[in-house]
Give the backbone structure.
Amino acid sequence: MDHRNRVSSPTLTRPHRATGTDEREDHVAEGTDDRALPATEELALARRALDSGELTHAAEHVAAALARAPTLPEVHEALARLAAASGDGGLGLFPLQHHTFVGAVVARAHLLAAAGHPAEGLDLLVAATAHAPGADWAGVPWVTSSELAERLGPEQAARVLMQVCAAVADPVPPANRAALSPYLTLARNAITVHPEHALLLGTASALARRVDEIPLAVRWASRGVRATPSKMGEVWLGYALRSAGRTREALAALRRAVGHDPDDLTVYADIAATLADHGRLEEALGWIERALARNPSFDCAVHTAHRLRFQRDGAVRHLVALADFIRDHPDDSHEHGDLAECCRGRPWLGQLTPPTPTTGAAAIHGHPDTGHVEELEPPADRPTPPPPSAEAARRLRELAHPAWPHPPAAYDAAVGLATLDLPDLLGLLTHPPETPQNALGRVLSGQDPALWLRCVQVWTCLGLLHHRTDEPWADSTRRRVLVELAREVAEVSEAALFALVTAAWVDPSVRPDVAALVTGRLAAVAEAARHQPVPNAASLAHLALATPDLDPETIALAQALAGVTAGQRRGALRALLRRLLPPWRSRPRGTP
């Protein structure tokens, strides 16, 4: 992700439905909500309003039609007619405000281009692209014409391409690449006019690489470096070569970039990431240590360092340190995915473990290490909670999932349960809602219904972490209830312990308390395992390995217990999650 080239743009709103002269309805899609009127109907309403001289209402319908069909010739004909009927070329009908409808922004962009200000129009089209990357906002003749490239000049063209790169994912998902082809055509046209402009060639290469035009990206970046050697030129070339699988050449280019500017620590992080991706971990750590020696708090270097250290030895302390850094530095230069990358697919760090064979649908108490499984009520000092409210069940269904990016993200997501009272939360555990009527529910119902119960338990316990957060931890209701669940309700024990472990991730002050609780629980399980099999021993061991500030002896014990886990069940869960989660792909860390 390019954090160097950001432009301000209006805050765009979702498409609206123009239902008449004074009624509009919010939509939730990127210009394609099925509740919206078709573009042809919006056009008919726009023409009727134009004939009546109601230009403001006509503009609303034209904007709505643009949101639905941004390249339809009839929509642009209506926009031209509207511009001709107004006194200022139509610009006054589409003002930029703090929150502006995306169709109105696109209409203004086209009017600016018609008025001789194509650069300003392109800025607005790029803002629309950032808002809805899959819509073909720029697929119009004035953007793809060779004349535009001549009028813009190389610096302005390069600036537009930088904006596009900053606005889209890296790499762009295949479904959204066609919508960016007009910008790539603009790049081709500009390079035809200015074939030796290094900045233009570099930014064009960055865009080509994002849309998987890798040979073109290498060719343009190479030409840019030959024209004017520079740090950024080498970075663009290094990225293009890396995408082409030419790792040795990519590293050489990135090292040359460091030679141009030894103080740009982002490039050090990129070199380290590239080396690590190709199994050269010690070299990678050497580069990242060089970066940290120059600036110990530089965000890209810190994120990469903790990720690589975890990759080297698997110690969770590196991830906890990274989570602490993220919490203490909320204003990083750009978004990083290192913590989520490390936690993805790992038991309790990024997903729950599958239920053990002893797990049933009813609450049980006693300890799993005793082998005693008995259907009973909650602890004796607490009456059976009533069923949860419909609202509590609805929130839980919307939230519960077998995977999460990392423990702090799971904690943040569970804030959706924060306003539920304690009886509702306990009711969710005692009377779990039915599986949701969505893709997740269908997969779980068809493959592993017990996993949904596990999801309910985990997310409800995470919700308990948000209960009465004004109470000091040691004597808080949330701690008391979670500890009781962990000790006395065996079926919910792991979910409650995970919530406690998550509390330790987000609040360093509770780490000694949580570490002591987990240590005691693991010791009891290990003792029981000496005499008979304990089905959930491996899951508890993985939970311990996810706990901050555990002592070395307990970590060693957890590692030994985790070694007996049932790989077949883990494999089945991984296969299930692959059906539910999009594949993660790495991306460059901070440079274009």
Notes: The chain has a mean pLDDT of 86.
